[in-house]
Amino acid sequence: MEFPLDVDGFLRRECPSCREQFKWHHGPTETRPADAVDPARYSCPSCGRQVNHDEWLTADQLQYQQETVSFYAMDVVNAEMKKAFGWLRRLAHRLLPPHRPPRIGLGPKPMSSMGEWCKAGL
Questions:
Q1: By CB count within 10 A, which of 14, 19, 68, 75 is most buried?
Q2: How many domains does the chain have?
Q3: What backbone phi and psi angles, to 5 degrees, belong to 48?
């Protein structure tokens, strides 16, 4: 998942140990050697603790990540529910009478006065 960078190409990060926030340059720089390999762990510039590269999220980034995952997870859950229970819907269509909307404008004309009741023989 990608987070927005500032105008200079930096990403805000937060140390999971001391909670100090700092900017982190995202992506290669002009002076980076072509054969350079990113380390598995980075050190906090404030407290020095080493942490895996994927543990530096700010609270806002973590919230955004969780909301995004939840949003797309619902699509997956709905698709799986349709697969799991689609047979029930198909069965209901075969066994139950089809739903028809009420007819509008059809049928006998309503009688408007007592005289019409008498003419109808009721």
A1: 14
A2: 2
A3: 85, -5
Assigned domain for 79 exists: yes
Structural domain span for residue 24:
1-29+38-56
Q: Does a structural domain hold residue 20?
A: yes
Based on the fold, state whether residues 89 and 67 are members of the same structural domain: yes
DSSP-derived pairing of the beta strands 41-43 and 21-25: unpaired
Distance in Å from the first CA to the final CA of the chain: 76
Q: Is the pLDDT of residue 102 over 70?
A: no
22 and 64, same structural domain?
no
Residue (of 62, 68, 16) closest to 43 by Cα position = 16
SS3 content of the chain, % helix, strand, coil (to 5): 35, 15, 50
| pLDDT per position as a tens digit, 81-93 | 888 888 887 787 7
Mean pLDDT, the chain, as a whole number?
80
Kindly report, residue by residue over 50-68, the tens digit of the pLDDT: 999 889 899 999 998 888 8
In angstroms, the CA 98 to CA 108 distance is 24
H helix intervals, the chain: 59-95, 114-119
